[in-house]
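Example record

The entry below shows one chain as it appears in the dataset: sequence first, then structure tokens.
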Amino acid sequence: MLAAVTSMSDKANRAAGVPRKGEAIDHAWTPLAKQPLPAGRPRTWYISHNRRLKAMRLAIALLDSGSFSPDQATNEKIRETAEVVGVHWPSDATCRMVRRLMSAQR
């Protein structure tokens, strides 16, 4: 049964253009297909979930642009990056979350 579930997600990822391990990437990056959020959760869960997604997008964009430490990521720089990436203006709480994600131990 587990193999069936993995193959379904594998089919969805293959359709979205995700290469298998070891495959060369010969095409432009395309985002994965979005899935609907689960219904029946409190509104605060959806707000925090979307805030985490936005913070992850911004942290990745900052890392790609060369800002590798939280000290380099000021609120202004995070908000400028948000304009470039095309996400709405982040709040102070989201900017703090971006800095926390950048300082996380890996």
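Notes for this example: The first helix runs from residue 2 to 15. The radius of gyration is 17 Å.
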